[in-house]
Specification:
Helices cover 21% and strands 18% of the residues. It is an alpha+beta fold. Helix 3 packs across helix 14.
C-alpha cells in the first residue's frame, strides 16, 4: 500500500514514482478555461517530470563501444554519420539575447560589429548549444549538472495559530505557516541560541564570534538584554541622543530600521545601560558613561552598575513587539571566541541569501565604530555584506559540542531547512550530477555516460588523467539576414522576475488534493517525508493572438505580460525594471550545426531536439505547432522561435578523392530523416515504457509528452493561465498543476 504522505503516491494515485516511466502523474481531471480551481496556481512555466535515471548513451550505440565513439575525433568510425545541419531560426515573438543592462541604460540584442552601421543581429552559438543540450537532457532524463544553490533556508516563519479567528490571514495561509513554524522549531530543537558579536580577524583571515558577557540582569553569558521601548523613550527625554521621539515601528512590510528617520539614528549605537539594585530590567540608557554615573548618583543609586552596550533594532515589528535589544560590550574579542566556519559566512553572503531587505537594513556605511566598516558588495551590489572592520551583533546557534552551526542578524533568523542539501533529497541521485565541492567528485568520474554528455562532451567522462572528452556536436552562431531588426515601438520597460526554489508549492511535487481545502498538507523543503522536485523547469509560450507583425502590444497585453512602452519623459526605470530593445518577430537567422561519428539514434536525438513533434521539414515557420524559447525575458513572452533543420550527410572517403566542393555531400530526404528519428524514438520508448514499446509510442514517455506540451505554440495556453501571480496570490500557497492537466482538452492529444 502506498504511503499517503509520499507525494509520488499522492500524485499518481498509486505507489509508483513519477516520471520514471510513461505513467501519468497528472492525477485528477482537466482544468477548465472558464473557472479557475480555487487554490490552483498560474505561472509562465511548467515542470517536466524527472526520470529516475538517465537514458544511457550506450542504448543509442548498438554495434559500437561507447568509449570508442567518445574518443573518435581523429578517425572515421564505420557505421556512423558525419555532416552538418543547416538550421533556420524564425522569431515568433520579439527576442532579446544579451546581458541584462545596468539600470538607467538601454539594452540591445547582440549584433556583429560593423563600423559602417548597426551590424547584423546574431544569436550566439553558445546560446543555441545550451538550448539544444537542455532539450536533449529533458528528453532523455540527463544529469542536471551543478546546482547553483547549495542550501535552502527557512525565512524565519512566524509562529501563528492556524485556528485563530482574529487573524486577517486566510485559513489556508495560517495552516501552511503553522506547519512551517513547527518544522523550524524542530530543526532548532537541541541547539543553544546565544547572542554575541561576529568579527573578522584580519591577521588570521578567519571569522569568530564572541558571546556577550554576563550582566547583573543575566548571570549567564550569551544573553542580550531587552530594552522596553518605554524605557528608551524616557531615556530620550532625559538625554540628548540627536532624536526627540521614538515612535512604535510601523506595521507592514515596509519598515527598515536604518531608513526610519528616528530609528536609524539609534541603530547600532553604543549606549550605557543602567542597572539599579532591587529593580528588574534596564532602568535607562545614557549616551555616555559619565552621564549614566551622574544619573545613578542623582537617584541615590550609587551601588548601581553601568554597562556599555550596543543598541539593536530588528526588522519588522509585530503588534506584540515592544522591545529593542542591548548587546553588552565584551571585555575583549580574543577571550572565549568561537570559530565560525568559512562555509557559513560564504553561504550567508551568497546572492541567494542576501535579500533586498538586508541590503537596505545593513547598508555599506552601517558600523559600530567611527571608521569604514568595510562591508563588501554581494553579487556586485552594495548592502547586506558582513563588516571586515568592527563587529556585527548576531544571534547564533551552537550544537551540543559547542560548535557554531548557524548565525543571523535577528532572533528569528533563517536556518537551513535540513541537515542535508535539500536538492539532493529532491532529485534522484543518478539525475543530480556531481556538485561543486563534493568530496566524491573525483570518484564519480568515469560513471555511466548519459546522452547529453556523449553528444556535447564533459570534463570527467573517463576516470583518471585525460578524462575529458570533446563534444561530437558543435553549434555555430546564427546570423540574421537584415540589419533593420529592432522592435519598432522602441525600448520595452520589463520587470525583473526572480523565481526562487523556496516556492515549494510550485517547484515541489504536490498531491492533487492539496489544491483544495483550508488545511493542505503541502510538501515543503523541510518536509520529513519524501521530497521530490516537480521536474525540469520549462517556460511556456506567451503571446497575444492577433498582435500583428511586427508585433504591436496594446495596453492590456503589456499589463498582462509584465512590461510597457515607456512614454516620452517618463523617467528612469525602477530598481526592479530594465529598458531593453528586443529584436522583432518574423526575423530569419541561419546557423550550422556540425557533427562527427554519430550513430543513427544519436543523430535522431539531435533532430528530435530540434524538431520536437513538428514534421520532418519543420512545418509552418510562421505558425508552427511546436516552438522553442531562447534568450532573456522568457517569462514575459519574449524569445519564442521556430527551428527548421536541413540535414546534410558527408561521405569522407568520397570527399578525400575529389577536389569538388560538393563531393561526397548529399542532403538527406524526408524518409531518411524519419529513419533517424525512429532509431532514437525506439530506443527512448524501449527504455522507458514496458512491453517492448516501438518508436511510434515515444510521445507516451512522460518527459517527451510534457516537453511537447510546454513547447506548444499554435495551441498555447491563454495569457491569463500563464500569468505571474501577485504576492497576495502567492500568500495562499496555490499549487501549480502538472502540464498534462493544464493542457487537457486543448489542441492535439498529449
Amino acid at each position: 500500500m502506498p504511503d499517503p504522505r509520499d507525494p509520488a503516491a499522492r500524485s499518481t494515485g498509486r505507489g509508483g514514482a513519477p516520471g520514471g516511466t510513461g505513467g501519468d502523474p497528472a492525477g485528477t481531471g482537466p482544468l477548465t478555461s472558464h473557472a479557475r480551481v480555487r487554490h490552483t496556481a498560474t505561472a509562465p512555466y511548467g515542470p517536466v517530470p524527472l526520470a529516475d535515471a538517465p537514458l544511457p548513451a550506450a542504448d543509442l550505440h548498438p554495434g559500437h563501444r561507447t568509449a570508442d565513439l567518445l574518443r573518435s575525433h581523429d578517425r572515421t568510425v564505420p557505421g556512423t554519420h558525419t555532416g552538418w545541419i543547416e538550421l533556420t531560426i524564425t522569431t515568433l515573438t520579439p527576442t532579446y539575447v544579451g546581458r541584462s543592462p545596468d539600470r538607467g541604460r538601454v539594452g540591445r540584442s547582440l549584433r556583429l560589429p560593423d563600423p559602417a552601421g548597426p551590424g547584423l543581429p546574431v544569436l550566439p552559438g553558445s546560446s543555441l548549444r545550451g538550448l539544444i543540450r537542455n532539450t536533449v537532457r529533458i528528453l532523455t532524463g540527463g544529469e542536471t549538472g551543478p546546482v547553483n544553490t547549495p542550501m535552502l533556508y527557512f525565512r524565519a516563519p512566524v509562529r501563528i495559530d492556524p485556528d485563530s479567528g482574529d487573524s486577517a490571514l486566510p485559513a489556508r495561509t495560517r495552516q501552511v505557516m503553522a506547519h512551517r513554524h513547527a518544522h523550524y522549531r524542530k530543526r532548532r530543537a537541541g541547539l543553544r541560541t546565544r547572542q554575541g558579536f561576529l568579527h573578522h580577524d584580519t591577521d588570521e583571515d578567519r571569522w569568530y564570534v564572541v558571546q556577550v558577557p554576563s550582566t547583573p540582569w543575566s548571570p549567564e553569558p550569551g544573553q542580550a538584554l531587552k530594552l522596553p521601548f518605554e524605557v528608551l523613550r524616557r531615556s530620550l527625554r532625559t538625554w540628548e541622543f540627536g532624536v526627540d521621539t521614538f515612535p512604535d515601528p510601523p506595521r507592514g512590510t515596509g519598515y527598515v530600521p536604518t531608513l526610519h528617520p528616528q530609528h536609524g539614528v539609534l541603530q547600532h549605537r553604543w549606549v550605557h545601560a543602567l542597572h539599579v539594585p532591587g529593580t528588574k530590567g534596564v532602568a535607562a540608557v545614557a549616551p555616555t558613561r559619565t552621564q549614566a554615573l551622574e544619573h545613578l548618583h542623582t537617584h541615590n543609586a550609587d551601588q548601581g552598575t553601568v554597562l556599555p552596550a550596543l543598541l539593536v533594532l530588528t526588522g519588522q515589528a509585530s503588534a506584540e513587539r515592544r522591545n529593542a535589544f542591548l548587546f553588552p560590550r565584551p571585555h575583549d574579542l580574543r577571550s572565549g571566541r568561537l570559530p565560525v566556519p568559512e562555509a557559513l559566512v560564504e553561504l550567508f553572503e551568497s546572492a541567494e541569501q542576501i535579500t533586498d531587505y538586508q541590503r537596505l537594513a545593513f547598508p555599506d556605511h552601517l558600523g559600530t565604530g567611527p571608521g569604514d566598516p568595510e562591508r563588501p558588495p554581494v553579487a556586485g551590489a552594495g548592502g547586506g555584506g558582513l563588516p571586515r572592520s568592527g563587529v556585527e551583533p548576531v544571534w547564533f546557534d551552537q550544537d551540543l559540542s559547542g560548535a557554531v552551526v548557524s548565525f543571523g542578524r535577528s532572533g528569528g533568523y533563517r536556518i537551513a531547512v535540513s541537515e542535508d542539501n535539500p536538492i539532493r533529497r529532491a532529485v534522484p541521485p543518478s539525475i543530480l550530477g556531481p556538485q561543486h565541492g563534493d568530496p566524491d567528485r573525483d570518484e564519480r568520474a568515469g560513471r555511466a555516460v548519459d546522452v547529453p554528455r556523449a553528444l556535447f562532451g564533459d570534463l570527467d567522462t573517463f576516470a583518471g588523467p585525460g578524462g575529458a572528452t570533446r563534444g561530437r556536436v558543435q553549434v555555430g552562431e546564427a546570423v540574421c539576414d537584415r540589419t533593420e531588426a529592432d522592435l519598432p515601438d522602441g525600448p520595452l520597460r520589463v520587470r525583473l522576475l526572480s523565481p526562487q526554489r523556496g516556492c515549494f508549492a510550485n517547484y515541489l511535487l504536490q498531491g492533487p488534493e492539496t489544491e483544495e481545502g483550508e488545511r493542505p498538507d503541502l510538501i515543503t523543503w523541510s518536509h520529513e517525508g519524501r521530497v521530490r522536485l516537480g521536474g525540469y523547469k520549462v517556460y511556456l509560450h506567451r503571446h497575444p493572438r492577433g498582435a500583428g507583425s511586427p508585433v504591436r502590444y496594446d495596453r492590456a497585453a503589456q499589463e498582462t505580460l509584465g512590461f510597457h512602452v515607456p512614454a516620452h519623459g517618463e523617467g528612469p526605470p525602477r530598481e526592479t525594471q530594465r529598458d531593453v530593445v528586443p529584436l522583432r518577430d518574423g526575423l530569419t537567422f541561419r546557423s550550422r550545426i556540425t557533427f562527427t561519428n554519430l550513430t543513427e539514434a544519436e543523430l535522431g536525438a539531435l533532430l528530435r531536439a530540434l524538431l520536437l513533434d513538428n514534421p520532418v521539414d519543420g512545418g509552418d515557420s510562421r505558425d508552427p505547432e511546436y516552438a522553442h524559447k531562447i534568450g532573456m525575458g522568457k517569462a514575459l513572452g519574449l524569445g519564442s522561435v521556430h527551428l527548421r533543420p536541413e540535414l546534410y550527410l558527408v561521405d569522407r572517403g568520397a570527399r578525400a578523392l575529389s577536389l569538388e566542393p560538393a563531393a561526397g555531400v548529399r542532403r538527406a530526404g524526408g524518409d531518411e530523416v524519419r529513419r533517424f528519428l525512429d532509431a532514437f524514438d525506439g530506443a527512448l520508448a524501449a527504455h522507458r515504457l514496458p512491453d517492448g514499446a516501438g518508436p511510434a509510442r515515444w510521445r507516451q514517455v512522460a518527459q517527451a509528452r510534457d516537453l511537447c506540451l510546454a513547447a506548444r505554440w499554435r495551441h498555447r495556453l491563454p495569457l491569463e493561465e500563464t500569468a505571474v501571480m501577485s504576492l497576495r496570490e502567492f500568500a495562499e500557497y496555490p499549487v501549480l498543476p502538472p502540464l498534462a492537466r493544464r493542457f487537457s482538452g486543448r489542441g492535439p492529444p498529449a
